[in-house]
Design goal:
Helix content is 36%, strand content 23%. The protein is an alpha/beta fold and 334 residues long. An eight-stranded parallel beta sheet has the order 9-8-7-10-11-14-12-13, with helices on both faces.
C-alpha cells in the first residue's frame, strides 16, 4: 500500500497498539518540541457544551511532518455515562486532502505517557531511578512503561486505594518489564525515598494526593491528573517546593488547572520558575534544570501530541499494510 494513498484510510485502536513503540513516539515528540513554537499553530482546546453534552476539539499544526489536523471527542445528552469516543482527523499539508481517520482512544493514552517520558528524560538525572506511582489505571500503567524507555528503574512502588488493584499493577510491571515492583499501603509510603514520583490518580472529592514534605531532595515529579479548573491532584506545597516547573501547555497549566489555581489562591508565586516543554527540549532552560533541586512536569495534554503520535502510527500502519482504505472521496472546493 502506498505510504500516501489517494483516498483516506482508517486506523483502528487495535492496529495502533500493534504498531506503536514508546521509543519511536518519544523521539517523534522530541523532534517536534525541539523546534520553535509557531504562533497560532497549537491554539487552545475548544469546548462546546449544552447540559451534559459536550464537544471538545484539539487542533494542531506541527512544525514538521506530513500531516496536520485535530482530535475530537464528545459526550451526548447522557454525559460520560454513555461512553466517550475519540477521533483524530489528519490532513495532508501538501495536498490539503483528508488523509486519515484514527480511533484516538489508545493514542490519547500513548501520547500522554510518551510526552511525560520526554519531559522526564530532560529533568531527571541519567541514573537508575526508584519510581513511585500514585494510581493503578491505564495512564499509570502506560507511564511506568514509557518511563522505562528513558530510564533504568531500580524499583517501582505503587499506591492506589484498592489493595487488589495495586498488587495486580505491581505484579504486571515485574512480569512485563522485569523490574522489582511492590505495592504500598499509603501514598506517603510509596513516595518515601522515590527519585521519580508519578501522580496519575485524582482522589475522590478532588483532594490532593501528593504533598511537598514527602519529596526527597533531587526528586522529579510528573503530574498528569489535574487538567481543568475543577480537578485537584497535588497540594500547593508541591508547587512551593518545586524549583522548576515544566508545562506542556504553559498558559493552560498555569491558569486553567485546579492545582495551580489553588497554589495561586494560597499566595504562591510560580510563573517565574515555569517554562514550556519546548524550552526544556531545546535546551533553553538547561541552567535552571542544573540548579533546581525539585523539578516538576505538569501536563494537560494537547493537540500537538495527538497529531505527532498519530502521524507516526499512520505511517507505520501504512508501511505494514494494516490501514483500512475507505471507499470515499470528498468534494474539493477551490
Amino acid at each position: 500500500m502506498s505510504t500516501h494513498p489517494d483516498s483516506p484510510v482508517f486506523v483502528s485502536g487495535e492496529v495502533s497498539r500493534q504498531v506503536f513503540t514508546w521509543s519511536e513516539a518519544i523521539e517523534s515528540l522530541r523532534a517536534s518540541y525541539r523546534l520553535p513554537e509557531q504562533a497560532g499553530a497549537t491554539p487552545p482546546r475548544t469546548v462546546a457544551t449544552v447540559g451534559k453534552a459536550w464537544l471538545r476539539t484539539l487542533p494542531a499544526f506541527p512544525p514538521s511532518g506530513r500531516y496536520f489536523g485535530a482530535k475530537l471527542m464528545a459526550a451526548g445528552v447522557q454525559g460520560v455515562a454513555a461512553g466517550i469516543e475519540y477521533v483524530i482527523v489528519l490532513f495532508d499539508r501538501e495536498t490539503s486532502r483528508i488523509a486519515a481517520f484514527l480511533d484516538a482512544n489508545a493514542i490519547t493514552a500513548f501520547r500522554t505517557a510518551a510526552t511525560s517520558a520526554l519531559a522526564l528524560d530532560g529533568l531527571a538525572p541519567a541514573t537508575p531511578a526508584r519510581l513511585a506511582v500514585l494510581g493503578s489505571g491505564l495512564e499509570a500503567s502506560h507511564h511506568a512503561r514509557a518511563f522505562a524507555a528513558v530510564r533504568a528503574l531500580s524499583e517501582v512502588v505503587v499506591y492506589s486505594p484498592t489493595p487488589e488493584r495495586r498488587e495486580a499493577f505491581a505484579q504486571a510491571l515485574t512480569r512485563d518489564l522485569g523490574v522489582p515492583a511492590r505495592a504500598a499501603a499509603s501514598a506517603e509510603a510509596a513516595v518515601d525515598g522515590a527519585d521519580v514520583v508519578l501522580a496519575a490518580a485524582r482522589s475522590q472529592g478532588e483532594k490532593p494526593i501528593l504533598f511537598g514534605s514527602w519529596l526527597k531532595p533531587r526528586a522529579t515529579v510528573v503530574s498528569i491528573g489535574s487538567t481543568i479548573p475543577q480537578q485537584r491532584e497535588i497540594d500547593a506545597s508541591v508547587v512551593e517546593r518545586s524549583d522548576l516547573i515544566i508545562c506542556d501547555s504553559l498558559e493552560e497549566v498555569l491558569t486553567e488547572t485546579g492545582d495551580m489555581m489553588a497554589a495561586k489562591a494560597a499566595g504562591l508565586s510560580f510563573h517565574d520558575k515555569s517554562f514550556s516543554l519546548n524550552d526544556l527540549v531545546s535546551g533553553a532552560c538547561n541552567e535552571r534544570v542544573r540548579s533546581a533541586d525539585i523539578r516538576m512536569f505538569k501536563s494537560v495534554g494537547g493537540g500537538l501530541q495527538d497529531i505527532v503520535v498519530a502521524e507516526l502510527i499512520v505511517r507505520k500502519a501504512l508501511e505494514a499494510g494494516l490501514a483500512t482504505s475507505l471507499p470515499i472521496q470528498f468534494e474539493s472546493k477551490r
